[in-house]
Protein 1
Amino acid sequence: MSKIKLAPDNRDLSQFPGEYGLPFLGKTIDLVKDTVGFCTDHYERFGPVSRLDMVKNQRILMCLGPEFNEAALFDPKGNFSSAGGYGSSLGTLYPEGMLIRDDKQHKRTRRASQPAFKTEALKSYVEMLNPIQERRIQAMPVNEEFIFYDAIQETLMDVAARVFIGLDEKSPEAQRLNYIFETINKGLITPLPYNIPFTTFSKSLKAREELRQFFKTNIPLRRGSDAEDMFTRYCNAQDEDGEYLDDADIDGHMAFLLFAAFDTTTSALTNILYYLGKNPEWQDKVRNEIFNINNEMPTFEDLSEMTLTEYVFQETLRFYPSVMILNRRTTRDVHVHGYDIPANTMIMLSPPFTHRMEEWWSNPLEFDPMRFSPERSEHKRHGFNYVPFGGGAHKCIGMHFALMNAKLYLFRLLKNYKVTLRPDYDPAFMHVHLPRPIDGLPITLTKI
Ligand code: HEM
């Protein structure tokens, strides 16, 4: 894949109010510390559109509210580029990722990925997820505090190995892939993304190469196999001319899928348990719903009975959408909601800020899953006031998988255990990279 060549970013945002912040770091520290607080402060002082600098003085226009989400995500005219928005961040390690492609190239990738996300594929993943989750949940300590974030990370690593790559999650190969994957992702959050020997970033590039080699070696072995994991599905996918995807594409899609799926789901499940621990009456409601399902191992069809669980999932992602900031870059001069935004401007959208706007939500700071019920449907007050999975062409392709995975996990956990937090637990949350309680959520399980 050829590297994207772009005109330099537009740095003249002097017509907008805002603050650039410190030399080199810009406002990065404030934004990372408390993304929602930072956006709220800018909104109150400068209005919905304001300028700031991020690390390395990258100049950015923050655009707050559903109107801007709609313009940048729905974007039928291609005024906003996702490749431009993420090329200099995610693109350094995942240049072939779906989110780093626009227009025709993106459509092609999306089409090639469909077989791995169809209902029939999702059903086969249920069969793989159930035993992994059962084994991992059974191994958790009972009547003894432990850090849930670490436990769910291990579980989801097993899921990545089995469901995404088709490996036995206990095999040495799967363990090695865990290490590779962790090492790659450390490169995404290092402030020094330069390929200098022994640095985090150079280790990360090396790990990415090892992953590439793994896929390259295994593609011929998987072709023609009837295994049902995502990797094998990609290996067997054919385009309209009956041609297989080429190796580089499969590697690019798989590496990005692993990246896009893992931390987002870890964050979501950790935060769901936080809210269920803080709101025991909701934990009981979800458990009652689960008790009404007459299967030890839930089926794909059973999951549609878990509506209250789904509202809890949605409400958690309203407060803490796993992806707290979305990026785009304008491809031309655009006029949005009364503002003229010049071409080649980096744009930042904030899902969690939008999710807490009083104009669009009743008592937005209250945990109230029923706001997602059909009678209230607060998430539909504007087509883009609820965007935990983005929207438009790049809307999360793994959304249904993520919800299914979370429901299966909660089914098994809550059917067997009560989840308790420390008395008066009120943790600081980290916001970037991916929101969760900083201490990793200490919980205690008691047998029901
Ligand atoms: C709770 C879990 C998840 C959340 C909150 C989430 C959120 C998102 C968001 C917000 C986007 C759009 C980004 C943008 O437009 O800038 C996105 C895209 C994407 N997600 Fe997810 N995601 C989750 C889980 C997953 C899973 C499990 C997978 C794969 C199985 C996945 C694969 C992807 C891919 C491939 C894209 C890029 C789609 C495209 O460019 O067309 N995600 N996700």
Note: The first helix runs from residue 28 to 33.
Protein 2
Amino acid sequence: MSAAPLEVAEIFRRYSGAYEQQIGRFSAAEQRVVHDITSCRTADLGGHLYVCDQCGVITERFNSCRNRHCPKCQKLERERWLEKRQQELLPVPYFHLVFTVPHQLNPLFLTDPKTLYNLLFRASADTLLTIAEDPKYLGAKIGFLAILHSWGQRLDLHPHLHVIVPGGGLSSDRQQWIASSRDFFLPVKVLSRVFRGKFLDEVKKMARESQPIFPSRLDPRDQPGAYQNWLDELYAAPWVVYSKPPFGGAKRGLQYLARYTHRVAISENRLLRIENDRVVFEWKDYRDDSKVKPMSLDAVEFLRRFLMHVLPSGFHRIRYYGLFANRHRAANLELCRQALGVAEESPEPEIVANDEASETETWEARMLRLTGIDPMRCLA
Ligand SMILES: [Zn+2]
Ligand SMILES: [Zn+2]
């Protein structure tokens, strides 16, 4: 009989003690995650009796923790979320954009994750809304949703936002639908430049206000030289915004979206084994023809990386902007449908779909060639 598949819970059970000895005590938020993951679907969380309505057999089922960082609990949450989104789709092509930041910013993300992740959302959203509304480009008010991912394939820190946006928006009087071109949304060079400007303007403002987002070696007051060099490097580094051509129709779009929304830093099917206090897991090497390779990390280091992706409690990982901002979403969607001349809740007409497999291939290959970074590497 083969051994039970390795779970993140098991790694925590075996190495939490070693982690706290070597790295330090878990924060309150981390403690919560460790507790939930290790007790998920065990007797610790209690259970309920389940009676099969076909054969009457009674089985005991343990309760799930429903923590958003628990690898076991994402599927159900995703289904619930998608069901609600079903009514919000518009019968137009949707674009997928990814906003990435240079790795030089990682020390700030580690020092003050909440402020930096908020800034990443704000700078990306402002950029999109501004450029879309500019008559030189689309000249429309748009709406979109943004999803934060913080990881790369090796559980390293790689903060980026996935943005899903309908290809078009409302005119300034909100009476007409202004469609974007079918295979081009907004110029990524302009988006990248404006995004960099907005992001770094805020970083500089926080430096002037002495906000505690800097690690001591980059502190603008104590290390002005190091800070300035770092800032210069950031202006010179590539700030890359990707834009993927539209994916299929509304239904396919929703399935596509589901790949991004409810994820944790690693899915458990990538875990292979524990050997000699090291965790062995699979990762995809996009620089080597996307080959799947085993990677081995010291178990404590594995836990450290996993916990690096625990978000501040109450932090919203999926956010809505512009026309889709929470308060006015229903009313604005109604305006969009009227402008598009479609009845309420009829997002069915299928947009001609691109060949998804080859399209994905080309897009990823192109991004890789341009930047050496693969925006899909967050996917399992
Ligand atoms: Zn769970
Ligand atoms: Zn991602």
Note: The first strand starts at residue 47 and ends at 51.
